[in-house]
Design a protein that fits this description.
The chain is built from ten helices and ten strands. By secondary structure, the protein is α/β, with parallel strands linked by helices. The chain folds into two domains: 149 residues, Rossmann fold (3-Layer(aba) Sandwich); 96 residues, STAS domain (Transcription Regulator spoIIAA). Helix 7 packs across helix 8 and helix 9 packs across helix 10.
Length: 245
């Protein structure tokens, strides 16, 4: 899957107790879609603040299921003079009204739309909520850009990019992303930490554990670009793992 395509299909893990950064991310995505001249389609309820005049078209989850041929929505938007389609979808509401399997199919259809048509997608998963209970699903479908309030994870063919802070609140995101990468990738993996600003001891343990498992299986794993504070966290954990007892 090409990185441009996956970046157009973005995932956002929204903390319901967040300071507002995730809400800003939703508004920023919305404004950019409007500026691109796209028709905005929404599935579920996501409050938008400080945006351009409302121009959303509400969709039912079934409209985006592969069986409904959602490419027709794009063709209709283009025929109406828009430059494409922007889809804002609340995963928690889709799964609550359908099923996890149904949402999985919708996510696959959205990736296909981004591959073949002028479409931008933002899928919002709540934490706690579907963004915790179905984290595997969120990670699987948003390789190119999965964000939460402090952390962004991007995965390409043989690189995992980790940006921001990893602590106990989002350690599960990093763990799940590395596990998915290990299952999907081949014999070489680079973990790019050049944009990581903080790693807790738990996060450093997770990185070492995944790297060790892959290396034992014969893969070449490289942790790259760690800034001094991040490198120190990794070194301290490595020393503790080597210490007897």
């Amino acid at each position: 899957m090409d990185a441009t395509t996956t970046t157009r299909h973005k995932g956002l893990l929204r903390s319901r107790t967040a300071s507002g950064d995730t809400q800003t991310a939703i508004d920023t995505w919305y404004r950019a879609a409007v500026e691109r001249g796209q028709r905005i389609c929404t599935v579920g309820t996501l409050p938008l603040t400080g945006t351009a005049a409302a121009r959303e078209t509400a969709l039912d989850p079934a409209d985006l299921h592969p069986s409904a041929e959602p490419a027709r929505l794009v063709q209709r938007a283009l025929g109406d003079g828009y430059q494409g389609l922007g889809v804002l979808i609340h995963a928690d509401e889709v799964i609550a009204t359908t099923s996890e399997r149904f949402h999985d199919a919708v996510e696959t259809a959205l990736t296909d739309l981004c591959t073949d048509h002028p479409v931008e997608v933002l899928c919002v998963y709540d934490r706690p909520g579907v963004g915790t209970d179905c984290l595997d699903l969120a990670v699987e479908h948003h390789e190119g850009d999965l964000r939460e309030e402090q952390l962004t994870v991007r995965r390409t063919t043989d690189v995992v990019h980790v940006a921001g802070e990893v602590d106990m609140t989002n350690l599960d995101v990093l763990d799940t992303a590395l596990r998915a990468t290990a299952l999907a990738r081949g014999r070489r993996l680079r973990i790019d930490l050049s944009e990581a600003t903080f790693l807790s001891a738990g996060a450093a343990h997770v990185l070492h554990r995944h790297a060790a498992v892959l290396r034992q299986a014969g893969a070449h794993v490289e942790l790259h670009g760690a800034a001094p504070p991040v490198a120190r966290a990794l070194q301290l954990v490595e020393l503790s793992l080597r210490s007897p007892g």
